[in-house]
Amino acid sequence: MARETMAGRVSLLSRSGKILLAGGVALTAVAVAVSAVTLYGGDSAATEANGSGDADFDPGDFGGAPQRIVPTALPGTSPSASPTSKPAPSPGGSATKKPSPPKAPDRPSYSAWAGPGCTGGGLYRETGRFSDGFDGWYTVNIGGHKGDGCDGRFSAVPMSGSDTKDSGGRATWSWYVGSGYTTCSVAVVIPEANRDQDVAGDPTTYRVLADPDDEDSAIKSFEIDQTSLRGRGLIVEKIPVTDQQLAVQLVDRGKDFGSDERDGAHHAAAQMRAICRA
Q: Number of folded domains in the chain?
């Protein structure tokens, strides 16, 4: 029995049938192309930070849950204002009023970085630092915020061994912001590291000081789970300004034993940025 080929079937079609067949093939090709665009495109935004705060964080009186931030995006500028629409001409033919220039976006009246390896702006100091290999304080040269006068290093602070008591190890960030401010925001960078033990506050306790030189002047406190935010950070809002100064202090309370993940755990003290608006 003779085999009927595809070419033979096509040759038996009328002229109109051939045109319809060709059109169907073209539509199929277009559908395949659209499917490819849908499959491979539009996923780049998934890597950007969102505004939800899913960290184990107790905001206290700081004005609600903090906003998540990406450390490298902290110094970014505000988006430009939308252009002013062109006014319609008056019916009388008189000269139209020149539109006013677009309003400049609001910018912080005071903004400065502080932390290990930062120069200028805010101040940073450590209390109770000692060297004992991975059991003491040590510096990690990369992983923090790099730029804006900061070189990216951070300090690993050994824990006290207790969730409720400190042993004297402290890191303090402070800024002289000047007059006109009652509260400011602070962006807290949580660095990333090759060793999880270097960034292992679960949680890390921070105190807001009325006087950066008086460790007993704490007026508020908050906690950050560093283990869930490595390589990112948080913005803590409505931190009180006292005598034109802003001060945040990390204390060393925390357990560094009990499991393989906790053995040798350290708090990470990296960079912070104070942001104040009048």
A: 1
Does residue 249 contact residue 171 with C-beta atoms inside 8 Å? yes
Residues in the chain: 278
Per-residue pLDDT of the chain (278 residues; tens, 9 = 90+): 444 444 444 443 444 444 444 444 343 433 333 222 222 222 222 222 223 333 333 333 333 343 333 333 444 433 333 344 444 444 555 555 666 666 655 666 999 999 999 997 999 999 999 999 999 999 999 999 999 999 999 999 999 999 999 999 999 999 999 999 999 999 999 999 999 999 999 999 999 999 999 999 999 999 999 999 999 999 999 999 999 999 999 999 999 998 888 999 999 999 999 999 98
Residues forming beta bridges with residue 268, ordered by sequence position: 156
Contact 159, 168 (CB under 8 A): no
Flag whether 235 is in a domain.
yes
37-74 exposure pattern, b = at least 16 Cβ within 10 A, e = fewer: eeeeeeeeeeeeeeeebebebebeebeebbbbbebeeb
Q: Is residue 16 domain-resident?
A: no
Output the domain CATH number for residue 265.
Answer: 2.60.120.260
Torsion-angle region of 231 (φ positive above 0: left; ψ -120 to 50: alpha; else: beta): left
